[in-house]
Fold these 4 entries.
Entry 1:
Amino acid sequence: MHDTIVVFDRVRENLINRRPGETFDEIVNHSLVQTMPRSINAQLTTLFTLVALLLFGGDTIRTFIFIMLVGLISGTYSSIFNASQLLVVWEHREWERWFRRGPSEGEQTPVVSG
C-alpha cells in the first residue's frame, strides 16, 4: 500500500509540472520509473530481514514469517504493476467498455431469420 501511495503522489507532482504535449499515460509511466528504485530497495531490505527470520527464527514464527513473505511479494507486485495501470484505465474511463451490454464498437448485431 505504501508503494502505491508513493507512486500516486509522484504522479500528482508530475501532473503539476507537466511538459507540453505529455499525455497522462506518459506521466504515469515516468512517475513509475522514478519511484521504482526506491520501492525495490525498500522491499529487498524487508525481504532480507524476513528471510533471515525464516531461516534462523524459531518454529513458532515460521508460518507467520512465510505469510508475511507472501504478502510482501504480492503487495509489491500489485503496487508496481497493477495500481498504476488501473489509474490510467480510470482516467480514460476505459472500464465503462468492460460492463457495457450489447455489441461492442464495430461489431454487427447478428440477424436471426426464422
Entry 2:
Amino acid sequence: MSIKAESLEEKIRVPEDVKVSLEGFKLKVSGKLGSNEYDFSHMGIELFLENDKEIVVRAPDNKRRGRGIIGTAVSIIRNMITGVTRGFTYKMKVVASHFPISVKVSGNEVIIENFIGEKYKRRAKIVGNTKVVVKGDDVIVSGIDKHAVGQTATNIEKATRTKKKDPRKFLDGIYVYQKVEGIEA
C-alpha cells in the first residue's frame, strides 16, 4: 500500500498595472517603476501563470520543507510586485561622536572618509540599480529590487563595522533606522 502525498499550492493575484512573463523558471515582473527578474530553478517548485492574472506556485509535498519553500517563493514574488509598483527605501543615519565622517557616492561605490580618524577610505559596493543619496547625516538607499536595496544597506553598515571596541560605548558608524515601501529621495 502506497500513500501519495498531496502537493501544496498557493496563488498570487497580479495587479492590473503589472505585467508578468514566465520562461521556464525565470519570472519577469514589469510595472511603472521598471522590471524585476528572478530565477526559481534552484527551489524545486512548479511555477505557472493562470490567465495572466494569477501566479501559481506549487511544491511537490505538503511537509514542512514544502511549506517553507512555498512561503519563500510567494514572499519573493510579492516583493517583486511591490518593487515594480511602489519600490523600497532604507534610511540610514551617520553616527559620529569621535571624528566627523564624510560620506559620498562615486560610481557604483559609497566612499566613507575619516571614519575613526583613519587615513584610508572605506568603500561599500552599490548592488544592481540601487540609488544612494547622501543628505547631511542621512544616507537614503532606494530601488525596485528589495534584495539589492537591502544588500547595499548591509554593505554600507558593514564598511563601518569596528573590531576590538565595545559597541555599547563606541557607536560610530552608519546604521539603518527605517525601512519604507515607496521610493523616497
Entry 3:
Amino acid sequence: MNSNQKFWSGLILGAAAGAAIALLLSTDKGKEVLSDAADSAEKMGNDLKSKLESLDKELKSILERGKVIAEELENKVTETII
C-alpha cells in the first residue's frame, strides 16, 4: 500500500469514526450507552479503590506481625548470647 492509499484509508476510517461518535452522542440510545459506560467506569473505580484500601490494611498488618517476630527473634538471640 503506497502513502496515497494509506492517506485515503486513514481519512475514510477517521470520517467513519467521527460519524459513529456523532451518532452516538446525538441519539437517546447513544446517550444511554455513554451514561451506562460512565456508571460502569465509576463502579469499577470504586471497587478498585476499595480493594486497594483492603490490600493496604492487610499489608500493614503483615508488616506489623513481621516487626513483632523480628523483635522476638532479636530478644531470643540476645538472651542466648548473654
Entry 4:
Amino acid sequence: MRRALQVVLLLLGSAGASAGQVVIDRIVATVNGQPILQSDWDVALRCEALLDRKEPQFTPEAARGTLERLIDQELLRQQIRTFQLKPIGEEELHKRMQEIRKQIPGAADDAGWQAALRRYGLTQSEVDERITDELEILRFIDVRLRPTVHVNRRSIEEYYRDKLLPQLKQKGAKEVPLVEVSRQIEEILSQELMDTQLADLLRDLRQQSEIHIQPSALPPPPGNSTAGSPQQAQTPRLPGIPAERR
C-alpha cells in the first residue's frame, strides 16, 4: 500500500512540475517494471546505518551497496508473491524490534529509541516496514531453500575438529563433546549452504530480469555514488538480522 501511494504521489508531483510544483519523489531504478523510489533508497540507507550502529554519514560505496541490496530484495519479493506464506504478525515484529533495540546502545528504553530515530531521520513506521520486509524475505529463504540443504555427519565432524576445537583452545575455553554441539554445527553449515544457494538464485534472477538504474538517480541520498549497470548478484544483506540467521 505504501509503495502504491508513493507511485501515485510521484506521478502527481511529476505532472505538476511544469506548473512550478515540487516533485515529491522519483524513481531511481526499476526491477521488472517495479519501481524503487528515492525515498525507499533513503530509508534503507538510514536503517542500515542505524541497525549497524554506524554514523549517519554515507559514502558513495555504502549508498551504491544499499541500492544493489534493494534490487536483490525486490527480486526476492517478486518471488515471494508466488508462495502462500503466512504474513508477519505484530507479535513477531515486536519481538524482533525488541531484539534490535537491545543491540543499539541507549535504545532499550523508549526515550533512547526515539532519540536514535531522530538522529537517523527515521520514523517508527519506516523501521517497522523495513524489518517486516526483511522478516518476510527470511521466511521465504527458509521455505524455498532449507528443504534442499543436507548436512552429512562427516561435515559436522570436520567442522568440530578443524574449526570449533581450535577456536575453543585459542580462547582458553573448556572443550565440549561433539554430541553437545552437533545440532548447532549442523545449523551453521546449513546456513552457509543456504547462503551459497541464495547467491546462485539471485544471480539467476538478475540474468532473467530487466533491471534499470536511472543515471539521473546519482548522486544518491544523502551522499554520492557512481552510476553503472547492476552489479553481479551476491548474498543480500538483511539489515538488522545477523548473517548467521539467514
